[in-house]
Amino acid sequence: MHRRSMILAAALVTVALAPPASAATKINLLYIPGGDFVPAFVAKDRGLFDKHGLDVDMSIAQNGSVIAAALASDSAQIGTPTPPVLLQANEQGLDMVIVAGATVLPFPAGASGVIARPESGLKGPKDLVGHKVGVPGFGGSFDVMTRNWVKAAGVDYKKVDWIELQFPQMGDALKGGLADAVAAVNPFYARILDAKLGTDIGNPWTSAPNGTMIVLYSATRAWTQKNPEAVKGFRAALVEAKAYAIDPANAAAVHDSIAKWTKLPPQAAASIAIPDDLEPQAKTEGLTFWITAAREQGLIKGNPDPKTLIAP
Question: In CATH, what number is assigned to the domain containing residue 68?
Fold first, then answer.
């Protein structure tokens, strides 16, 4: 055998015997379309998930109630529930933990609030008794926070007529008189105000301490225990993506990602300010308020230790 042929044969044997490159961890990320998850959008589009050994698919959840079930069935590996949803799911035995944080209080100025119909005469939380107030889901973060806001004003929130309204329905509900006030968030909050369908009467999110988590990334405890490196990689990708997203030089690319993953028209996406409340690092103090409020409002009976709810 010629020397060149022998070298080629040896090289082929070496390649054949070499261990295969480790495959990327497959993750289906189930998210609610909104600015809270800009780092995930950026990490996907800028290849940061790939960089950290993750093959991430992005799937929109129409509402937060489906996320816990999707994680339990493994049709999604990471989801974006609110803290109250996570606490209630755990009380029902699903054993979910936090993989990473998304956003924390204080809420960006002009991003959320309670909007009342001009004809309602409502001026603040004390006026809501006996009126119909729309929240995007019972037991969700807006519901819990708005009830807490009313309670903090010295009013019995049980005397408010709470109704469920998804964000896209809120403007029409105010216009048609189906609701006297709604708890909204951008881009719906800004659209309702711009259309002069109501006036802002206050921000419920001011009733909770700064640092309180607004939404988060979660997985089942079993999945995180099986995939500790994927958890680390996911967190690292979000940290890098946040740094990219908050750099003004990248604003155009970030807005392109927002439009792509929220399905908003580019013009609408371009009007959304890059959130300044992004915080990928989940901290135990970010859960304290939610545990207390969920217990007070009868959503959970237990008193979980926040330390046990964050994956290592």
Answer: 3.40.190.10
pLDDT at residue number 22:
61
Cα distances from 296 to residues 40, 270, 284, in angstroms, run 33, 40, 19
CB 157 within 8 A of CB 112: no
Total structural domains in the chain?
A: 2
Q: Let me know if 206 is exposed, middle or buried by CB neighbors in 10 A (0-12, 13-18, 19+).
A: middle
Q: Tens digit of pLDDT for each residue in 208-253?
A: 999 999 999 999 999 999 999 999 999 999 999 999 999 999 999 9
The range of the structural domain enclosing residue 192 comes to 112-207
**In this structure, is residue 49 part of a structural domain?**
yes
How high is the pLDDT of residue 276?
Answer: 84
Backbone torsions φ then ψ of 224, nearest 5 degrees: -65, -35
Residue 60 contacts residue 263 (beta carbons within 8 Å): yes
Contact between residue 186 and residue 207 where contact means Cβ atoms under 8 Å apart: no
Number of Cα atoms under 13 Å in the Cβ half of residue 253? 14
Please give the C-alpha separations between residue 203 and each of 114, 176, 274, 312, in angstroms, as whole numbers: 6, 23, 20, 34
Tell whether omega for the bond before 106 is within 30 degrees of 0, i.e. cis: yes
Are residues 218 and 200 part of one domain? no
Q: What is the residue-averaged pLDDT of the chain?
A: 91
Could you tell me the two tokens for 270?
């371009």
What sign has the CA pseudo-torsion 172, 176, 179, 181?
positive
**In the chain, which stretches have pLDDT less than 70?**
1-22
pLDDT at residue number 87? 96
Q: Which of 208, 217, 204 is nearest to 290 (CA)?
A: 208
